[in-house]
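[audit] Reproducing an earlier prediction to check determinism. Same input, same settings, fresh worker. If the tokens differ from the archived copy the diff job will pick it up downstream; this log only records the rerun itself.
[audit] input (197 residues):
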Amino acid sequence: IESKRVITCPDGTYADDSTKHCETGCSGSFFADPGINKCVQICQTQNLYSDVDSGNKCVALCNQAGSTPFRDPTAKKCVNICPVDKKLFADITAKSCVYNCTPGTYAYDNSPTDTNKTCVNNCPGLFFADNSTGYGTCVLRCPEDPILFGDVIGVQRLCVSVCQTSKFGDQDPLNGRLCVSTCPSGWFAQNDGLEDV
């Protein structure tokens, strides 16, 4: 086999600085970057992420069947949990760590120390789905500006501006501003509506 010196390794091989050869793959903490045909510790090619589950390759999509299915844009690698310190959520739809979840899903953060912030289709437990900021979040109390009320519609808990028929928006912030069937003691029901004058 004849060897020759090259400046750039041919497609399908990667320059390995430790062996000074064009290799078919990379090992250890190095990843095969097909954009530059080189073994790198951090993928250099735009929109590629280092993935151990794909055999130490730089990939556009992380291996969804593997242990690291989410792209972390801050570290340019595939991860199993999005970095909490960056306030990123694991978005199954986008297959990525995101600041804002895909429309139709909601950012769920159970606690400030939660290590598994995720985008969910329905907010769990006592959380309400809130879209008032332009993107979905799960909140324990619906926002005050604009004033929204917590309502249960079917199986979903939502923040709404107007409660369902036969329910009233409880204006008392101490009660959590919920849609209620009857007003608490000392409060009275009033049907608000917009009328043309």
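[audit] rerun output stored. Observation attached for the diff report: The chain has no helices and 18 strands.
[audit] end
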